[in-house]
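thoughts on these tokens:
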Amino acid sequence: MGYEDRTREELIAELTALRRAAGAGVGDGAVARAVERGASLDSEERYRIVSGLISDFAYAFNVGADGRLAREWVTGAIEEMTGYTESEFMAQNEWSPVSDPEDEPVIRQQLERLLNGEAAVVDFRMVRKDGTTRWVRDYARPEVDSESGRVVRIYGAVQDISRRKAAEEVQSVLLNVSQAVSESDNLEELLATIHRELGRLIDTTN
């Protein structure tokens, strides 16, 4: 039985189980596949259900004939994630209004791929309204009009991956310090390395 044949209740039950499994460590491929399946459904309501279950918040943009973007909707824990209310976030019509300026090249490349009809998954730092930063992963895919071949809509689902990034950073720091301890015969250089690596952890937890 295909996804298009399933009832709303069956779809919700299956994707709820998927999200729980993802929280327990299932790879990103499962989440990405669920987004792909959800976006291919005929019903936009079902896409909202899918994206709401496997992400912290989701969104949709309309793409005009001139390439201009117009935000259509957001759903999920938008205020908890960004610090902005839904109405405040909707009023920011840019492609990624809360991304860290240093990650602009990543965001720009993602949008270029989407407008070329390609799905795109990117990690970037999101700056909340209070100025704090979170790492997020954005799964986005375009909807292409079958007649014109033009991208007419973009759907996306965003996950907070801050804890995962912090854990990766801790592992990297431990590895670098361990290597420095085993390889360095200069105490001053060793202390400088430890100080630098611990500084990375402080930046991660802020």
